[in-house]
Amino acid sequence: MRFTIAGCSFHLQASDVEQAMSGIKGEPISGACVRIGRRWYPVKQVGAVITGQDRRDFSGAEVTHALERLGYTCRPTPPDAPAQA
Protein backbone atom coordinates (compact mmCIF):
# COMPACT_ATOMS: atom_id res chain seq x y z
CA MET A 1 0.00 0.00 0.00
CA ARG A 2 1.06 3.55 -0.59
CA PHE A 3 1.17 5.94 2.36
CA THR A 4 2.15 9.54 2.88
CA ILE A 5 3.92 10.27 6.14
CA ALA A 6 5.36 13.74 6.80
CA GLY A 7 4.85 14.66 3.15
CA CYS A 8 6.89 11.70 1.86
CA SER A 9 5.35 8.81 -0.03
CA PHE A 10 6.09 5.22 1.02
CA HIS A 11 5.05 1.87 -0.39
CA LEU A 12 4.74 -0.57 2.53
CA GLN A 13 3.45 -4.07 3.10
CA ALA A 14 2.88 -5.68 6.50
CA SER A 15 5.85 -7.97 5.83
CA ASP A 16 8.09 -4.90 5.34
CA VAL A 17 7.08 -3.57 8.75
CA GLU A 18 7.63 -6.93 10.44
CA GLN A 19 11.03 -7.33 8.82
CA ALA A 20 12.09 -3.81 9.78
CA MET A 21 11.03 -4.30 13.41
CA SER A 22 12.41 -7.82 13.88
CA GLY A 23 15.08 -7.82 16.54
CA ILE A 24 14.28 -4.29 17.69
CA LYS A 25 13.51 -3.93 21.37
CA GLY A 26 10.43 -1.83 22.10
CA GLU A 27 10.99 1.43 23.93
CA PRO A 28 8.91 2.34 26.99
CA ILE A 29 5.34 3.12 25.92
CA SER A 30 3.62 6.21 27.23
CA GLY A 31 1.08 6.89 24.49
CA ALA A 32 -0.12 5.42 21.22
CA CYS A 33 1.22 1.94 20.54
CA VAL A 34 1.00 -0.87 17.99
CA ARG A 35 1.27 -4.62 18.28
CA ILE A 36 3.71 -6.21 15.85
CA GLY A 37 4.07 -9.93 16.35
CA ARG A 38 3.93 -10.49 20.09
CA ARG A 39 5.45 -7.14 21.05
CA TRP A 40 3.98 -3.69 21.62
CA TYR A 41 5.90 -0.68 20.30
CA PRO A 42 5.33 3.07 20.48
CA VAL A 43 3.97 4.16 17.07
CA LYS A 44 6.57 6.92 16.84
CA GLN A 45 9.37 4.34 17.22
CA VAL A 46 7.89 2.20 14.45
CA GLY A 47 7.39 5.25 12.25
CA ALA A 48 11.03 6.27 12.65
CA VAL A 49 12.27 2.75 11.83
CA ILE A 50 10.08 2.14 8.77
CA THR A 51 10.45 5.61 7.24
CA GLY A 52 13.96 6.58 8.33
CA GLN A 53 12.59 10.00 9.30
CA ASP A 54 13.13 11.93 12.49
CA ARG A 55 10.25 11.43 14.94
CA ARG A 56 9.66 15.17 15.08
CA ASP A 57 8.80 15.18 11.36
CA PHE A 58 5.58 13.15 11.61
CA SER A 59 2.66 12.67 13.96
CA GLY A 60 1.71 9.49 15.73
CA ALA A 61 -1.70 9.73 14.06
CA GLU A 62 -0.11 9.49 10.58
CA VAL A 63 1.73 6.31 11.52
CA THR A 64 -1.26 4.86 13.38
CA HIS A 65 -3.46 5.38 10.31
CA ALA A 66 -0.92 3.67 8.04
CA LEU A 67 -0.41 0.72 10.40
CA GLU A 68 -4.15 0.19 10.89
CA ARG A 69 -4.60 0.11 7.10
CA LEU A 70 -1.99 -2.66 7.03
CA GLY A 71 -4.03 -4.61 9.59
CA TYR A 72 -2.11 -3.93 12.78
CA THR A 73 -3.78 -3.41 16.16
CA CYS A 74 -3.12 0.09 17.48
CA ARG A 75 -4.13 1.51 20.85
CA PRO A 76 -4.14 5.07 22.22
CA THR A 77 -2.55 3.88 25.49
CA PRO A 78 -0.33 0.94 26.51
CA PRO A 79 -2.21 -2.36 26.83
CA ASP A 80 -1.52 -2.64 30.57
CA ALA A 81 -2.26 1.00 31.42
CA PRO A 82 -4.78 1.50 34.21
CA ALA A 83 -8.16 2.87 33.18
CA GLN A 84 -8.76 6.56 33.80
CA ALA A 85 -11.52 7.20 36.35
Describe this structure in words.
By secondary structure, the chain is an alpha+beta fold. It has one domain (2-75). The chain is 32% helix and 22% strand. The protein starts with a strand and ends in a 10-residue tail after the last strand.
Please describe the structure with a list of short key phrases separated by commas or semicolons.
single chain, 3 helices, SCO5918-like, 85 residues, two-stranded antiparallel ribbon, alpha+beta, 3-stranded antiparallel beta sheet
Largest sheet: 3 strands, antiparallel
Backbone structural class? alpha+beta
The number of distinct β-strands equals 5
Output the radius of gyration: 12 Å
CA distance, first residue to last residue: 39 Å
Average pLDDT taken over every residue: 91
Helix proportion range: 25-40%
Tell me the overall shape.
globular
Strand order of the largest sheet: 4-3-5
Low-confidence region ranges: none
Number of domains: 1
* Count of alpha and pi helical runs: 3
| Order of helix and strand elements from N to C terminus | EEHEEHHE
How large is the share of residues in beta strands? 15-25%
Write the topology of this structure.
Blueprint: E1 2-5, E2 8-11, H1 14-21, E3 33-36, E4 39-42, H2 43-51, H3 60-69, E5 73-75
Antiparallel strand pairs: 1-2, 3-4, 3-5
Condensed summary:
The protein is of the alpha+beta class.
